[in-house]
UniProtKB/TrEMBL annotation:
Annotated GO CC locations: cytosol
Family label: Belongs to the oxoprolinase family.
Entry protein name: Hydantoin utilization protein A
Segments forming domain Hydantoinase A/oxoprolinase: 209-494
Species in which this protein is naturally found: Cladonia borealis
Domain Hydantoinase B/oxoprolinase: 703-1220
Domain Hydantoinase/oxoprolinase N-terminal, chain residue ranges per copy: 7-188
Biological process according to GO: glutathione metabolic process
Pfam families xrefs: Hydant_A_C (PF19278), Hydant_A_N (PF05378), Hydantoinase_A (PF01968), Hydantoinase_B (PF02538)
GO MF terms held by the record: 5-oxoprolinase (ATP-hydrolyzing) activity
Domain of life: Eukaryota
């Protein structure tokens, strides 16, 4: 008889290491849980192995067949920032690729004030540029120069990097330059590991490819050392060691060491594979949604017909890494999540902050004092008094004390507060579960919920009830299920390649040949490096598709035989089926094939799972009740509830709620009205007990938990709308730069979730027709909706939401269309004198009536734009997003009933009102005045002033824009919607005090806004509006300037509040039309919390379009894309640096330029200096390649002719500084010089002198700072009081030096020209004219 064969599954977590030993011939299992050893995690693995083997006969001499290992080592390395010192090699002109990180500030409006920008994993001082350039088709533009690169590389040799990443532009199309650079690095740094992006992620999008490859380099040395140690410890103790990949497959040690980025999320993947093994493979339940709840967070995933869904990117902290992984979504709701009540909003917040392992929940008795989710469970009687098999006593009284503090803050009782904590936490998980189900086109009612992890089974019944996903399943040993998954999963590998083709223009044989090449690659790797012969390999063929113009890639499985038989129509059909499932619609646009891949997995050998003995009766013996508890549920106490010992329960036993099932590593709560059955393999199956549900009916009174749940549900609905828009739209402004804003409003039009204020009241004020179910309204006319949208490119969809004939809500969404017709491509003419030059005007129009579309009308509209397919697609997306909101509001209405639904809305509105009111109370009574300017109107006239006085009267704020200049005859006017302005101010006030708040219109009556008619912010039709972006942005500076003078937490400098536009269009030589609309970014202002980020945008969630995408689809090349040293204003906190973009044009065409701050400077505050100006220079290489003429351009110009080879050098503006630069730490200044964010000469503006090696010259710095301080003191003694705002000079001074400094003539003041328009007959204009006549 051959000896027993064993495999060991190991899951290394941050706190514990879980192990599961499986006997391969019988299915018998043993488990162990040991403390993790962060200093060397292999030690815990060996300790656990030895402990678990001691439980079997002759365990000390057993040689394990295989150790399958999942770990959070990679994840923790990133989160704890304990990875390698990575050097980064990039293409010339791209050194700031990680510094700008696609320019996105996460969060909503004003989040930039409080967002702490993370440091890049590869620091700037270790980033060097490689010579040479490739085009997006892989052809060589400039050759790689080995000699130059070798010399450049010497700059980082002395810094001794631990690893090197090479990521060059367009290397996805051709790896030749990266391979050449690697050969040089191997010569110069022979012992340093190198990762190249064309091997780690050979796909389009330069930032994502770079950060993914940097992550690979960042974790590689630590992981390699870890695996070396583990192999050493296992020598002679195990035949094979395999590592769990993030996609749920296994990898050999050699592959895992080279590509550790492929398993940075192997921990969460283990649990999902465990569910497949224990539930999907052993029961009739194949469609499963999983919830893995630990101490800090909860991971959720979806399994479709026994196969986990895979996504091509994943998020680790602030980083989005493109590597295949089980589609796990993580939310900050774990057992240790802290409950708190912000003073301003008095809303209950649970997570994402966590008590961690130390001190942990209060009931653990380790010194914790803040209430957590675990404490709430303990207070409600859901936990036994002893955990971990009776070895760990809970301090229930301490838990009650901590939860009582929350109760006191909320003004409710102890048990109500505890239940509220759990309900809010459950709602957070519910939202995440919807992301992996509903958002992916799945109905959760067709699935069963599987819960595991230490805390998952406690919440499973309640979450399953929300999701309506039954039965709720609790696998055996849920606390170590990840280790079980590790033990039972299979070896896997995949290879892929970029294959960008329009499907109709592709030959079927070309696709099949490409698959054949990939198949040979993957077969070879599986055979030679994984040890799996071809006879035991199974293959999956995949392709990524999208509609031409989209940026999302939708992966689908391809059947090669069907492709051979049916050809390319088969590929279009399977893509469109998936697109429709995800987004509810199909398009007539061309389909584009983007990537091909082949995935191989070893053939599964069935492992037996040990079955439970069959119970003689469904009623378990009372001897299995280890204790009783008093449970509290929905405010009702249930006494003497059984706590069952799971280890004794048999197949067929049934227990009825309320009760608890306990085991060594977890506890399962069965709620009143539910029952739990034990199946053959030991799963707990929770069902509703017929007729025994505890009713929470319409007679329930509104409580704070319901309000918080409602608020969370609204936020989730809005997130779903955003996700659909950014994934499916064609216009880059929507898709990449997220210039789309949605609103859900109550029936009268008050916004209950959104960001730009409600669009509905302006519509309701003017609409005289009927409003019925199935109606859809469209407008792009600012004058039709009181400025709720502000120019013709913004197309607004509005849909009423009915329950039968009762209107219960509104959904609205607008997005920026790339073109709407008009006098210039892009529809944003700089010189327009009326709206009639700005493209098609669509007054509020019913485009669908009772669900029937007016297709003829829509075709008339599309006929008047240059890119009709894009507009058609984007309108479909806008409508689909509003339909999502409609479904979510109907679900809320059904869930809570009519009375609670409307009471919750009223309370949310009132909550925001009370919060803003309390903030206003802290603002002093004195009036505050602030003014700012747009430099010019593009026609040589300027500056144009916006002025505002803020006054506090009787607990309300009044904003009076008297003093603002009259409307311009050009297109810089901005029709400021009063609700929008109120929303801006409210969000600014709230975000600093409670950044999790869901903004709504509840506080609107606390603000009074007066904008004189006929002014720049309240123009009279038909005043042109197409350049309104500059005043829209400047308004945010005005808000900061007003609030900052009265509340220090809002005192920011000025900076990149604008969104400058660049447009390039024309006909290619092949006769096809191209048209680009692009938004630029620059220096964020310095803030009370620190420096302003470089090359970012403070508009919510906007991000840069990938340059590789632009080069692939437009006739241009972006030669330089970095930031500008010294362009951020010096201060205690430095303003963010500007962005430098060099556009090389490859076809003749026209460009348009929109920006500002070319003459004025973004002001510094409290002693900080202003940021640098913007510049735009066109270098005419088409005229003279050696000595090209250089032409300076102003800020707002159209119809600029460009030719093949010309370069536009565009430098945006920097952010102003905050505080006295002489107080900035000299070592930080020196570091920024080494990072090339500040120059050596620029360091002297901070009073810092450097040695030649760029270290701080302490003596020289002290001397210089003393001299600079003396100048400051003399200036103050002479009566020059330091101004709050440093604008870099008066307008007279700026104009006097204008031509010398900018090579452009100064603009003429508005009162120096003859203004014409309907505003000239108004008294305001007459007074303005008289005032300036006197001044002149």
């Amino acid at each position: 008889m051959s000896p027993a064969s064993y495999r060991l599954g190991v899951d290394v977590g941050g706190t514990f290491t879980d192990l599961l030993l499986l006997q391969e011939d019988t299915g018998q299992t043993w488990r162990a849980k040991v403390p993790s050893t962060p200093e060397d995690q292999s030690l815990a693995v060996i300790q656990g192995k030895d402990q678990i083997l001691s439980n079997i006969p002759n365990g000390a001499t057993v040689v394990l067949n295989v150790v399958n290992h999942g770990t959070t080592v990679g994840t923790n390395t990133i989160l704890e920032q304990k990875g390698a010192k990575v050097a980064l090699v990039v293409t010339e002109g791209y050194r700031d690729i990680l510094q700008t990180r696609r320019s996105q500030v996460p969060g909503g409006l004003a989040s930039w004030i409080i967002w702490p920008k993370p440091e890049p994993l590869a620091p700037l001082e270790l980033t060097i540029e490689a010579p040479g350039r490739l085009a997006p088709d892989g052809t060589e533009v400039r050759p790689f120069n080995e000699e130059v690169f070798t010399e450049t590389l010497q700059g980082i040799v002395e810094q001794e990097p631990d690893s090197v990443t090479i990521s060059l532009i367009n290397s996805f199309a051709n790896p030749i330059h990266e391979q050449a650079a690697r050969r040089v690095v191997a010569k110069v740094l022979p012992r340093t590991p190198v990762s190249i992006s064309s091997e780690v992620l050979p796909e389009l999008m330069e930032y994502e490819r770079t950060i993914t490859t940097v992550v690979n380099s960042y974790v590689e040395p630590r992981i390699s050392l870890y695996l070396e140690n583990l192999l050493k410890h296992l020598e002679g103790k195990a035949k094979h060691l395999r590592i769990l990949r993030s996609d749920g497959g296994l990898s050999s040690v050699s592959l895992a060491s080279r590509f550790p980025v492929s398993w940075v999320l192997s921990g969460p993947a283990g649990g999902v594979t465990g569910v497949v093994s224990v539930v999907a493979n052993q029961t009739k339940f194949k469609n499963l949604i999983t919830i893995d709840m630990g101490g800090t967070s909860t991971d959720v995933a979806l399994i479709d017909n026994g196969v986990p869904r895979i996504r091509r990117e994943t998020k680790i902290g602030d980083l989005v890494v493109k590597a295949p992984s089980v589609d796990v979504r993580t939310v900050g709701a774990g057992g240790g999540s802290i409950a708190r009540v912000p003073e301003v909003t008095k809303a209950l917040r649970v997570g994402p902050e966590s008590a961690g392992a130390e001190p942990g929940p209060t009931c653990y008795g380790k010194g914790g004092s803040t209430a957590t989710v675990t404490d709430a469970n303990a207070v409600l009687g859901y936990l036994p008094k002893y955990l971990l098999g009776g070895t760990f006593a809970l301090d229930i009284e301490a838990a009650k004390e901590s939860v009582q503090k929350v109760a006191d803050d909320l003004g409710v009782g102890l048990y109500e507060a505890a239940e509220a904590i759990l309900k809010v936490s459950n709602e957070t998980m519910y939202g995440a579960l919807r992301l992996v189900s509903v958002e992916q086109g799945y109905d959760p009612r067709d699935f069963s919920l599987v819960a595991f992890g230490g805390a998952g089974p406690l919440h499973a019944n309640a979450v399953g009830k929300l999701l309506r996903a039954f039965p709720v399943i609790i696998p055996p040993s849920p606390g170590v299920l990840c280790a079980f998954g590790d033990a039972t999963t299979l070896l896997r590998h995949e290879v892929g390649r970029t294959f960008i083709r329009v499907l109709l223009e592709t030959d079927k044989s070309e696709i099949c040949d490409a698959y054949e090449g990939l198949l040979h690659q993957v077969q070879k790797i599986m055979c030679e490096e994984q040890g799996v012969p071809e006879s035991k390999q199974n293959y999956i063929y995949q392709a990524d598709f999208r509609y031409n113009g989209q940026a999302i890639n939708i992966p689908v499985n391809v059947d090669l035989h069907t492709l051979e038989v049916k050809g390319l129509p088969y590929l279009r059909d399977i893509f469109e089926q998936e697109h429709e499932k995800l987004f509810t619609y199909r398009l007539s646009s061309n389909v584009e094939l983007v990537n091909l891949r082949v995935i191989t997995e070893e053939t599964r050998e069935e492992l037996p799972i040990k079955k439970l003995d069959k119970a003689e009766s469904p009623h378990p013996p009372k001897s299995l009740i280890t204790a009783t508890t008093t449970l509290v549920f929905e405010g009702k106490e249930f006494k003497d509830c059984a706590i069952w010992d799971r280890a004794g329960l048999k197949y067929g036993h049934v227990v009825h709620g309320p009760c608890v099932v306990t085991e060594m590593d977890s506890n399962t709560l069965i709620l009143p009205g539910f029952q739990a059955e034990i199946d053959a393999v030991g799963n707990i199956l929770i069902y509703e007990s017929e007729g025994k549900m505890v009713s929470v009916g319409a007679d329930k009174e509104l409580d704070m938990a319901t309000v918080d749940i409602f608020e969370s549900a609204l936020a989730n609905a809005r997130a779903e709308m955003d996700a659909l828009m950014t994934r499916t739209t064609m216009s880059p402004a929507i898709r990449e730069q997220q210039d789309e804003f949605n609103v859900i409003a109550e029936p009268s039009g008050k916004m209950i979730v959104g960001q730009f204020g409600s669009f509905i009241p302006g519509f309701l004020d003017m609409w005289e027709g009927t409003i019925e179910p199935g109606d859809v309204f469209l407008t792009n006319d600012p004058y039709s909706v009181a400025g709720a949208i502000s120019h013709h490119n913004d197309w607004l969809i509005l849909t009423p939401i009915f329950v039968e004939t009762k209107l219960i809500a509104w959904a609205a969404n607008f997005g920026h269309m790339t073109d709407v017709g008009g006098s210039v491509p892009g529809s944003l003419p700089c010189a327009a004198s009326s709206v009639f030059e700005e493209g098609i005007q669509i007054p509020v129009t019913k485009i669908a009536s009772k669900g029937v579309w007016n297709s003829d009308l829509m075709e008339v509209i599309y006929r008047n734009v240059r890119l009709p397919e894009w507009n058609r697609s984007d309108v479909r997306a806008l409508v689909a997003a509003c339909e999502i909101a409609g479904r979510r509001m109907l679900e809320l209405y059904s869930r809570f009933g009519d009375r609670l639904y409307f009471e919750a809305i009223d309370e949310l509105l009132n909550r925001n009102r009370k919060a803003v009111s309390s903030i206003i109370k802290s603002i002093p009574e004195e009036s505050t005045y602030f003014e700012d300017w747009i430099d010019d109107d593009g026609q040589g006239v300027g500056p144009w002033k916006v002025a505002c006085t803020m006054t506090k009267i009787d607990g309300r704020l009044k904003f009076d824009f008297t003093g603002t200049d009259p409307q311009s005859p050009s297109s810089i006017n901005f029709y400021l919607n009063i609700n929008m302005f109120k929303m801006f101010v409210g969000i600014y006030l709230l975000v600093v005090y409670d950044s999790n708040v869901v903004a709504n219109d509840g506080f609107h009556d606390l603000f009074d806004v007066y904008i004189p008619k006929g002014t720049l912010l309240n123009p009279i039709r038909p005043a042109a509006l197409s350049c309104r972006t500059h005043f829209l942005g400047r308004l945010l500076d005005v808000i900061s300037g007003l609030l900052g003078q009265r509340a220090p937490e809002f005192m920011t400098a000025a900076g990149f509040s604008d969104s400058p536009h660049f447009m390039y269009s024309g006909y290619r030589q092949d006769g096809s039309w191209f048209q680009l609309y692009w938004i630029g970014f620059g220096g964020i202002p310095a803030r009370p919390i620190g420096d302003g980020p470089d090359g970012h945008c403070l508009w919510p969630a906007m991000k840069a379009i990938p340059n590789e995408f632009l080069e692939l689809y437009y006739p241009l090349r972006i030669e330089v894309f970095n930031t500008v040293a010294d362009s951020g204003g010096p201060g205690l906190y430095r303003g963010g640096n500007a962005q430098r973009i060099f556009w090389r044009f490859l076809e003749e065409g026209e460009i348009s330029l929109h920006d500002d701050r070319w003459l004025s400077k973004p002001w510094g505050v409290l002693g900080g200096e202003p940021g640098a100006r913007s510049t735009k220079t066109l270098v005419r290489y088409s005229v003279d390649a050696k000595n090209p003429p250089r032409e300076a351009y102003g800020s707002k110009q159209d119809h600029i002719k460009v030719s093949n080879g010309d370069i536009l050098e565009w430098v945006t503006w920097g952010g102003g500084g905050w505080g006295d630069a002489l107080k900035r730490d000299p070592s930080i200044v020196a570091l920024e010089v080494r990072r090339r964010l500040v120059s050596v000469e620029g360091a002297r503006r901070y009073g810092v002198v450097l040695h030649p090696d760029l270290s701080v010259d302490e003596e020289g710095t002290g001397k210089l700072r003393k001299e600079m301080k003396a100048v400051q003191t003399r200036s103050e003694s002479a009566g020059s009081r330091q101004e709050i705002f440093n604008r870099g000079g008066s307008w007279e001074e700026l104009k006097a030096t204008c031509f010398e400094e900018t090579r452009l003539p100064p603009p003429r003041a508005p009162w120096e020209v003859a203004l014409r328009g309907p505003m000239t007959m108004l008294p305001y204009f007459e007074n303005w004219q008289k005032e300036h006549s006197r001044a002149t």
